[in-house]
Amino acid sequence: MAKVAPSILAADFAKLGCEIECVSSADYLHFDVMDGNFVPNISFGFPVLESVRKITDMPLDVHLMIDSPSRYVSEFAKAGGDIVTFHVEAESSDKIHKAINDLHKLGKRAGLSVKPATPAEVILPYIDSLDIILVMTVEPGYGGQKFINEMLPKISNVRRIIDSRKVMCELEVDGGINFETAKLCVNAGADILVAGSDVFRAKNKDEYISKLHQLVR
Question: In CA terms, which of 58, 104, 113, 177 is 20 to 30 Å from 81?
């Protein structure tokens, strides 16, 4: 069964604690960090992550959409992130390797993310040391975007790479996930579904997550 990771980017921050409690049946809690440079939007950083860590035992899945992420991966791990994923487009190869090693030394899981226009093959130099590969199914930077159907072959390609290398690495997808696109992504090989707007807009968030789990069982 695929895992579900609600993105708090879509939550109501006036009642964030309650919003997180309402999605506690999910597998991970997705935490999007944006710096206004790598992507044209700004979200939140260490203080919010530290606060979220205090109120939930859910695994925190931190997605860094920032320039030069190697400078900050350890700090986000120490602030509460269990998984820290950053973009392959945002860093040099040597620093990517170092960032992955730094996360592993802290006992954290390390992930790389690729934008829609980035070919799947860029992950090959790092695949043996990764715990997560995140395929963006929208352009990173804003929630509520429409799923890019052309990413389905890319998801399948990443799945083949993971399976052929026989590595213990999960395949995550992020962007435009709903009941329809979730099924498509899982059929293409996804292990983790990041869902934001549809989860947090649901009248009964726990019920929505349950239905999503059942759909991709």
Answer: 177
